[in-house]
Structures are given as structure tokens and as C-alpha cells.
């Protein structure tokens, strides 16, 4: 269970391919990314090296892993930024990524330096897993906000909850791992089966849909709520979570 216990680790790995050489001999680094961090890092990298960086669009950890796996004989990217440890661990164990030791490795908290023991994962940032609420949506239905994971199962929230599929989303897979640790495996899967009846389906961009009032509740990392709060300041988003969560670095 060591891997599952640390599923919340978000890492930076260097993929198997090397720096791409364009037709005009210009060096370009191609990045698969699930986080906006790559934009700032790309600017700093180009300033320091003069090498251009092309960032491919955001996608879930599972989808990115599937893409890298499919490209293993002809890699299209150099770096994979962000995503859950579960996906990165699978990539490492499958030989899809190479060891990488950042210059500031010794400055990292020892717990996050090299969780797999092979320098294929480096901690990048931490996140808190929970759920966010659009008060306007719930108020229109004369509903109060949920205050625990268990309350999400109440019939009154039927069709109002958004969540991604654990098959393609690192966040959703981390949710599954968190529930297993909180409740035990059998109870966690029973919980998810009950929760499914309240979902509006496995949604994409569910945090944005909650901000826009298309959903009332979304299960996600709470830093996404902060991003949406800046984009939609008129919307009131509350952050509700229990203390025992698994969204660690």
C-alpha cells in the first residue's frame, strides 16, 4: 500500500525522449503537462537556455500515461509535468521515463525527494483533496451545503455532483485511494457505488462547470477552487473537506 498511500504526490519526470531537434536545427523541448506551472517554468527555461518549449494541452494523468505508453517506440515529448504519483509510478515501472535529479534536490523535504527510490519522481507541489460548492445552485434548490464526505450520498444532491473518472483522472484516482484509507477497501467501493447515483455523470472540466452553475458540487483538489474564484469572483465557492485526506506532495 506504500504507493497508494502516497498517491497524492505530484511529480516532475523526464520522459525517455531527448530534446527534439527541429528541421532548422532549433532545439525544442516538448512538454506534457496537467498543470499551469509548466507555463512559468517554460519561460524560465527558455530564458536560461535559449531553447524553445512547446507545451501540449492539459489532460488527466491517466490519459497522459496512456499517450506516453502508446508513444513508447516513438516518443513525442521530453518532459511530463504534474499528475498523481500512481500514474508516474506506472510509467517508471514500465520503463517509460528516465531518472532525473534536479539541482535543488538536497533542498527538498526528504519525504518528497525520491519516493520510488530511482530518481524518476520529484515532488513538485502539494494539494488538499475535498469538494467545492456553488452556493447559488444549492440556494435555488433550497439546499444547504454538504459538510462531510458522507453527506454527499444524501438523495437531495442527486444529479448535482461532478467528478472525473478514476480510469483517466489522477485526481479521481487519488480520491479513490483516499477513501480506501479512510474507510477500508470494501467500504470505499461501496461508498463510490452509492455516490455514483448522485453524480451528474463522470464529467470533464467539472470545476469550471460548478463555477458556471451547471453543477452544484465538485470533488477535486481545492487549489482548483482558488483558480476559479479568481476567474468568477461573483460566485461563492466553499471549500469543504475532512481532515484525513490524501493529497500529499
TrEMBL record:
Gene Ontology cellular component list: outer membrane-bounded periplasmic space
Species name: Spartinivicinus marinus
Residues passing through the membrane, by range: none
Assigned keywords, A-Z: Signal
Protein name: ABC transporter substrate-binding protein
GO molecular function: thiamine binding; thiamine pyrophosphate binding
GO BP field: thiamine transport
Amino acid at each position: 500500500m506504500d504507493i497508494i498511500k502516497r498517491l497524492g504526490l505530484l511529480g516532475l519526470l523526464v520522459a525517455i525522449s531527448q530534446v527534439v531537434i527541429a528541421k532548422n536545427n532549433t532545439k525544442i523541448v516538448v512538454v506534457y503537462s496537467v498543470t499551469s506551472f509548466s507555463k512559468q517554468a517554460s519561460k524560465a527555461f527558455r530564458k536560461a537556455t535559449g531553447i524553445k518549449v512547446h507545451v501540449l494541452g492539459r489532460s488527466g494523468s491517466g490519459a497522459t500515461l496512456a499517450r506516453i505508453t502508446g508513444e513508447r517506440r516513438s516518443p513525442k515529448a521530453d518532459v511530463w509535468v504534474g499528475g498523481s504519483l500512481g500514474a508516474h509510478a506506472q510509467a517508471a515501472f514500465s520503463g517509460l521515463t528516465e531518472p532525473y535529479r534536479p539541482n535543488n534536490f538536497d533542498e527538498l523535504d526528504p519525504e518528497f525527494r525520491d519516493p520510488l527510490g530511482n530518481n524518476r519522481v520529484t515532488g513538485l507541489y502539494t494539494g488538499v483533496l475535498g469538494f467545492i460548492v456553488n452556493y447559488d445552485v444549492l440556494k435555488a434548490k433550497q439546499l444547504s451545503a454538504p459538510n462531510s464526505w458522507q453527506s454527499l450520498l444524501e438523495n437531495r444532491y442527486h444529479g448535482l455532483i461532478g467528478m472525473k473518472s478514476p480510469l483517466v483522472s489522477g485526481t479521481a484516482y487519488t480520491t479513490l485511494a483516499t477513501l480506501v484509507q479512510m474507510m477500508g477497501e470494501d467500504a470505499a467501493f461501496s461508498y463510490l457505488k452509492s455516490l455514483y447515483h448522485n453524480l451528474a455523470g463522470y464529467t470533464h472540466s467539472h470545476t469550471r462547470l460548478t463555477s458556471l452553475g451547471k453543477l452544484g458540487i465538485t470533488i477535486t483538489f481545492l487549489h482548483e477552487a482558488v483558480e476559479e474564484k479568481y476567474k468568477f469572483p461573483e460566485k461563492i465557492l466553499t471549500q469543504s473537506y475532512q481532515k484525513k485526506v490524501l493529497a500529499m506532495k
